[in-house]
Each structure stands twice: as structure tokens, then as C-alpha cells.
Design a protein that fits this description.
Layout (H helix, E strand, L loop, with lengths): L1 E5 L6 H13 L4 E4 L10 H10 L8 H8 L8 H16 L3 H8 L4 E6 L2 E6 L16 H7 L8 E4 L6 E5 L2 E5 L13 E9 L2 E9 L3 H10 L5 H10 L3
Parallel strand pairs: 1-2, 4-5, 5-7
Antiparallel strand pairs: 1-8, 3-4, 6-7, 8-9
Helix pairs in contact: 1-2, 3-5, 7-8
Amino acid sequence: MKVAFISDIHGNAIALEAVIADIKKRKVDQLFVLGDICYRGPEPKRSLSLVQSLNTKVIKGNADEWVVRGVREGEVPEQVLEKMNLERDWIKAQLDQNDLHYLETLPTEINVEVGGAVIQAFHATPESLFDVVLPNAEDDVIATTLMTSEQAQVFVYAHIHKPYIRYINGKIIMNIGSVGLPFDGLAKASYGMVEITNGEINTSIQRVGFDVEKVVEKYREVDYPNADMMINVVRNGRL
């Protein structure tokens, strides 16, 4: 049984198409989406439509919340607040009321049993859409902040755009990275795979190339606010 987890598309429909094609090629049995669908990319509407066409469970990320109600003081550094809200206003203008209602009403957690293994998935932490837990956090921080379900053997999250897999207390914690805006220096889409065979659990991070320069063209074509910075992120895989 193969289960794929994707997240942090951030309006990069070109990267999302590449990931969906890779998932189909690998004959994945189930797919889940962990949020951040539209914000900060040149194709928010098309990204959302692609996600909805997957007919699978989707949960909310912090950027989905921002699209609905804006970026608030204290959620980002003060010097970038105005710029990020300009981007948010542009994104919101590309969507209709049905799109906004869809984002607003998304659930915030997935609990699923696959092949006898229980998986808990969320965007940032089980309690927050915004908290940041980095790959180098201490084991006890990860265990108490992220691995809160007693039943789960596998914990999957996104948000930080830096994929990793660790093993703590006999369980697996995996960050699946970002489809649209990787921050780990590799300008390729990232997603997570959980494969369960005869009760054995194997996890992996998949990296998928996409046409970066085509995404760059899209940012310029739509006159995206803050385009130069976002182009730099897409090209270099770093914020």
C-alpha cells in the first residue's frame, strides 16, 4: 500500500502537475494534501483547481488561512507584513467566493489507518497552523510537539519547506517539504511517501524536477507583487 503526502504548493501549478504525474507513475494508492495551496505563486486558481480535481482529503495550512483573512501582526516579521499582505490581496483577487469558502472550511488534521499502520498528518503541529519545528529540533521537542497521538506510528507534517525523516521512540516523524517552494537549496518539488507491506513501514522523500524558468515566466506574465524575490526563491530553492 503506497500513500503519498503533498503540501505547500504555493500557487506553483507547474510544479504540482509534475508531482501529480510522478505520483501516477509510481501507482500510489492514496494521496493526501496538507495545505498551503494558493498563496505566493503565480497560478493560485489553477493550483486550487488541480488540488480539487484529486478528489482526496485536503487540510488547511497557515497560508490558506492568510488568503481568507490576511496576514496579521506577530505572524511574520514586521518589515515584511505590508508586502505579504499585498501578495495576499493579489491572490484573493484571483479567487472567487466558492474558492475562499473552500479554503476557510478545510479541516486541520488527518488520522488514517493504512495497512494496519496509523498515520497522523497535519500542516505545522497538531495544535497550530503557524508553529515552526525545524529538522534539527531536539528529540524531546519533536516528540512532545508533533508526536502527540498515542495510536499513530507515523507522523507527517509540512510547513517548514525542508524535508526530513527521523525515528524517535520507535516511531517515524517525516516532514514532506514543499511542492512549489522548496527551501533546502534543491530547486525540485518535494513530497513524502509511506509504503506499507506486510506490516512493515517504509518512508521516503521524493524529489521531482519541474520547469523552473516557466514558473519564472508566469510570475512576470501576471505581474505578481514581489515577483523578484519569489523568482529568486524558485530558482535557488532558498528563502
